Amino acid sequence: MLNKKGAQLAVDEINANGGADGKKIVVTDKDNKSETAEAATITTNLVTQSKVNALVGPATSGATAAAVANAGKSRCSIGYTICNSR
């Protein structure tokens, strides 16, 4: 939830300043239920049907691996967060 709010705050600020290369950014929120297969399906749908340019997430390592594999096939950028509890 905090990642989503932080992303939206950043997008709101970018859009208020003219967007990215003059284009507004739109946040689309999807829940992969922390399931690898669901993450793969959602990623495929986002990059092939919705034609997104970039993805942020998912949060778990298995879901991230599935998302990276599918995003990479369409040359879509993907970012994800890493937490360490040292």
Describe this entry's structure for a reader.
By secondary structure, the protein is mostly helical. The protein has 3 helices and 2 strands. It has a two-stranded parallel ribbon. Strand 1 (54-56), helix 3 (61-73) and strand 2 form a beta-alpha-beta unit. The mean pLDDT is 85.
Q: What is the compact description of this entry?
A:
With 86 residues, this protein is mainly alpha-helical. The protein is built from 3 helices and 2 strands. Helix 3 (61-73) links the parallel strand 1 (54-56) and strand 2.
Write the layout of secondary structure elements.
Layout: H1 2-16, H2 36-48, E1 54-56, H3 61-73, E2 77-79
Parallel strand pairs: 1-2
Shape: globular
Give the terminus-to-terminus CA distance.
23 Å
Q: So how many helices?
A: 3
Largest sheet: 2 strands, parallel
Sheet-strand content, in percent, reads: 5-15%
As laid out across the biggest beta sheet, the strand order is 1-2
- Could you say which structural class the secondary elements and strand pairing correspond to? mainly alpha
CA-based gyration radius: 13 Å
Count of β-strands: 2
Low-confidence parts: none
Write down the overall mean pLDDT: 85
- Helix/strand order: HHEHE
